[in-house]
Amino acid sequence: MFLSFYLCGGRTTGWIASSLMVASAFEKGPAFARSLRAWTREFLADRHALPTDVEHTWSQSILEQKPGLKEAISAHLQTLRNFVRALDIVHFTSEPATLLRFGLAKPVSLATAQCWMHALEHRWTKGPNGQFVDGHERKDVVGYRQQSFLPAMAEYDQYARQWDKDGQEVPATPQTGDSAASHPSRKHVVYWWHNESTFYAHDQHTQRWVHKREKATPRRKGEGASLMAADFVSAEYGWLRSPDGRDSTRILFHVGKNRDGYFTHEEIFQHATKAMDILRQHFPDEEHVFIFDNAPTHLKRAADALSARHMSMGPTREGNPTFGVETNIRDENGRPIFGCDGKPMKEKVPMMDACFADGSPQSLYFLPGHPRAGVFKGMALILQERGYSTQGLRAQCPEFKCKPPALNCCCRRLLFNEPDFRDVQSLLEIHCKARRFPVLFLPKFHCELNCIEQCWGYSKRLYRQMPASSSEADLEKNVIAALDLVPLVVIRWFYTRAHRFMDAYHRGLNGKQAAWAAKKYSSHRVLPNTILAELDREGVTPD
Predict the structure, then answer these.
(1) Mean pLDDT over the full length of the chain
(2) Coil, strand, or helix at residue 376?
(3) What CA–CA distance (Å, rounded) separates 6 from 19?
(4) 3-class SS at 217?
(5) Is the alpha carbon torsion for 290, 294, 297, 300 positive or negative?
(6) Burial class of residue 7 (count of CB atoms within 10 Å of its CB; 0-12, 13-18, 19+)
(7) For position 336, what pLDDT does the model report?
(8) Which of 206, 497, 526, 533 has the smallest C-beta neighbourhood within 10 Å, fewest atoms?
(9) What is the structure's pLDDT at 15?
(10) What is the pLDDT of residue 175?
(11) Which residues contact 482 (CB under 8 A, 6 or more apart)?
(12) What are the backbone angles phi and psi of residue 540, rounded to the nearest 5°?
């Protein structure tokens, strides 16, 4: 542009005047005009000597200018684990060794360190939440998971459908393990996952784009009214309902002493009965397996179920009340009878018969014809009838805390490990199996294996996007709408995710390793055979 002005102007426009006109066009001054003349002379002498734009070159961060500085700070922050601060960068650059190594004249300021935190891909936000680990790796929990739950699931998985990342059924092949097609007489297995979750009226999104002129407004205190939802879900059909949608197992329950009460074992019992009725009527051509979590309401046993916890060593002494179990006195409608103090009235009933190894019954009380007929025999005699010697054994170890791996250290431990005492079925299990519906109980603390947990989370995200529930009617309407909006393909994703965790545990991974593997292979139904080598390479240890 400068040369064009100079050549076109001829003798009327001189060298200096042309440079000043170009500088003025760019809103620059005489200094820029002098630089322009100097650049042009250099260009005329050497056509490869093009000028460079030096404007804003000072803005390049020292973090980028100093080789290895960015990597050194990242490595330092990793040694500080989770709670790193911008101030840690200031302290790191204040060390004499760091100043000398990278040629820094002085430590960086706190404001610069905060900018560097963004350059190092750190963000000031809440840490991501992972699965709960409380009790997850407890010895008894892991033992049940590996020895009972996973083998049972593997047996049913042979006849269960599997789904790909698009929610489409995976064709039965030897690799998928689905052998229902190769055994026409065996029905397809459908898993029905059961759980409950509570929605709150004031549960709304709190993070959003806020205009700088927006003022604080009064807000409602607390979580607001609650509504508990209980239901069954499967990857084949979604929420459990009849094909026409008129009959459903969804229960909406207002929990509270002055509301609908509490969701007890009786409600769980009725809920399972409702589910079995719908499945028997509308889906009779498949084998349905119920999966419940390990909650006390699901595991409740019969009042007279076998238990060695409070048994005496010897027979009940004369004059003492006979050994038995307390249970509520109920009326003809099955409802508990309350006393004047407002508490349920109790009665003591004998414990049910045990059974020998051959399946024959063993009474815990002396039989009719015995001088002490109807009196409790005591643990010692019960064990002797089973062929054990109780000589030298005490009733129980202090506080019943036997030192592992001892299994015969005391009479109570011996009886506690007997199959008929150990494998007592819950009332829910007995009820469902009587109608030919198998029941599985998830390991404790393993919510990642229950795909309905993710369905609750997905529906709550939708619920928070809905208008605020100003009344209980709005709360119920919004909860129903949020649950109905969970797509079937998403439910199948959650089903596949739960099976991916099961596959990880089956391969011997613990909770930390399984979570890493499930996230890395989020689109896979099973993990690759190289997963253990990958964990070692990435440093994901069991500790």
Answers:
(1) 88
(2) strand
(3) 8
(4) coil
(5) positive
(6) exposed
(7) 81
(8) 206
(9) 82
(10) 45
(11) 199, 459, 460, 462, 463, 466
(12) -90, 95
| 469 alpha carbon, distance to own chain's centre | 27
d(CA 445, CA 294) in angstroms, rounded, equals: 8
C-alpha–C-alpha distance, residues 527 and 314, integer Å: 54
Question: How many CB atoms are closer than 10 A to CB 427?
Answer: 18
Residue 420: which H helix or E strand, with range?
Answer: helix 419-422
CA-only gyration radius of the chain, Å: 37
The CA distance from 440 to 189, in Å, is 13
Largest Cα–Cα distance of the chain, in whole Å?
A: 142
How many whole angstroms from its chain centre is CA 380? 45
Averaged in consecutive runs of 10 residues, what is the pLDDT profile of the chain (543 residues)?
72 78 85 87 83 65 87 89 88 93 92 91 79 79 94 94 89 54 72 95 83 83 90 96 94 86 87 96 95 92 88 91 87 82 87 92 94 93 93 91 85 92 92 95 93 95 90 92 96 94 93 88 83 84 74
Q: Which residue has the tokens 């302290």?
A: 91
Question: Tokens for 159?
Answer: 């006849």
Quote the pLDDT of residue 209: 77
Q: Exposed, middle or buried: residue 100 (CB in 10 Å: 0-12, 13-18, 19+)?
A: exposed
Bond before 398 cis per omega within 30 degrees: no
The pLDDT value given to residue 431 = 94
DSSP string, 316-356: PPTTSPPP-EEEE-B-TTSPBPB-TTSSBPEEEEPPPPEE-
Tell me how far CA of residue 506 lies from CA of 136, 151, 158, in angstroms. Answer: 15, 9, 15
Total residue count of the chain as it appears in this document: 543
The structure tokens 């809103």 sit at: 27
Encoding tokens for residue 483?
């649950």
Per-residue confidence (pLDDT) for residue 82, from 0 to 100: 75
